[in-house]
């Protein structure tokens, strides 16, 4: 079966077919996908534009009910969808099921929002006049998402955008096309969405850019939601800005985890293990660098490396912490980072591809079949080292030491990202100081850097984004625009600032 783009409710065959393979078993083709091009994207934007006014006319509570139905259908199909996530991107099944749960949580939150979507009444400075605000949909939204969270992250955009009365062109990641079609079907069927309200486009990066640019030039796209690398985010932001539209950018992270002298070290090790190597380190919220107080460094490192050696790695359909890397592109990136290890770094344990000549004790399954790599801990990283400064997007965690909390915070902020962060401490003063001075949009106290809940603002600062926030009520500011209304029932022209009532 070949999976295709779906534009205005119709399957749209493209000019070439690409196979999507299972990263845990590279021989296994999960599905064939027909790739469109720039014009497929533009066609989808036209369809979305055409469908928008009537979708916005559907009363918001009814749109909320559509979201409720989507949530239930996703819940009923959770296991099948999670199995597909595992097959196509190699995410361990328990995490994949958690990811599907995140869609349901998002639907649960927004289904009631259709009955709120509040505006405000505002007092006027003049007599016999009322002021109001209304939230209006932005219009048509292009959603471009990454493959590491192939269903949860798209739902963070698509659910609130639909609820608010927008129509959508969705371009999913190249690594997860088959799962995208399954997600798309559940949304269209569950929500009973009219043709053109949600469109799915498969095309490559250059065609996506060309299609987005053409659609922006033609006034077909009012907003872009993008999750992916900081480098591509910059280009999307620039392109959108040139056409006077805005982008909601959710980009990379180099997320720090600070371990203070008072920390519960076992808890900190557990948090570092999960956020460093869960999802094979391929979350935007994955742990980048452990910043540990010099007095507990040796103890932390020995417990951490013992935990890393004992962690189950292998077949993602089994109970493992870490499966394969998403795609060969990220395997190359991992190798490149290993090449940047400096003489002053200490690497604990084996590194590189897991195989007969580079085995891992307790590996689950057949390592040679997929993109399986050793989890790596690099001790002694400092600012200026690429492993300290740059997002690895793979199973490589740096460790460095600090003497004062000021220094720890400076190190935590140094790479210039600002997505997630964490501190392990039993001293409330350390926790509050860190919370106050960290540049990240998200802070965990005695919890790991990853695993945000679906109804708190999610987003970053600096190289991690443009300050936009997803999730919860806050994301509505991305998908609605305020309309101000002034209603004068005085029967005469009252001029603001000039006819203000005097005391
Ligand atoms: C991402 O990697 O793009 O907080 C999103 C987390 C997840 C979402 C990660 N809920 O780790």
UniProtKB/TrEMBL annotation:
Keyword Magnesium appears in the UniProt entry: no
Keywords, in A-Z order: NAD, Oxidoreductase
Annotated ranges, domain Aldehyde dehydrogenase: 16-485
Signal peptide positions on this chain: none
InterPro entries (UniProt xref): Ald_DH/histidinol_DH, Ald_DH_C, Ald_DH_CS_GLU, Ald_DH_N, Aldehyde_DH_dom, ALDH7A1-like
One Pfam family recorded for the sequence: Aldedh
Catalytic-site annotation from UniProt: 250
Enzyme Commission number(s) from the entry: 1.2.1.3
UniProt key word NAD: yes
Gene3D superfamilies listed in its UniProt record: Aldehyde Dehydrogenase, Chain A, domain 1, Aldehyde Dehydrogenase, Chain A, domain 2
Subunit structure: Homotetramer.
Entry's family note: Belongs to the aldehyde dehydrogenase family.
Protein name, UniProt field: aldehyde dehydrogenase (NAD(+))
Species lineage: Bacteria, Bacillati, Actinomycetota, Actinomycetes, Propionibacteriales
